[in-house]
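Expect chain and fold; see below:
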Amino acid sequence: MMNDDQDSVFNKDLLQQQLSNYAGLVENVLKPQLLIAEQAANRIRQEIRDYQELGQLLQQLNMTDTTATSTTTTMVDLGYQTIFCQASKSSGRMLLVHVGMGFHVELTISEAQAFVLKRIQYLQNTRLHPQQRNMDEIQEHITSATDLLLQLQQEITRNSQRNDNTTNGLGQ
């Protein structure tokens, strides 16, 4: 049979082990999951910004009165907004728009504008919002685990103080 001193050491060791387990869960599982989810959300946000920029460019093109004989000149991003080149298009009424999975479709400016609006709405509703919910859920898990760690630490401190008081009381 265990006496009170052995029982308190056992409880302290058990609580310390639980504290380490939960700290490992937060640091090795939850925080990396949150980082991955944040990176995915940032990629989606960047794609939304790219489509918004395309929408603004299409609006500018729509406002200019281009005829079949006029030439439209613009700067085209060749890669991650670091390399640009000047591009000229003889007919400003039809455009090739990347619609996903490597496919490009020839659309009028107004069709391209409608596509951009639908694509932004799709990205926000079906990709960004679920990703944001996932990030919120992971953050809630981190908060819960952190609260539990704090409670365990407080319990260890209380038990340690109780043991110190008991030991000091017996020694006098």
The helical segments are 4-63, 109-171. Residues 63 and 84 are 23 Å apart (CA to CA). The longest strand covers residues 72-79.
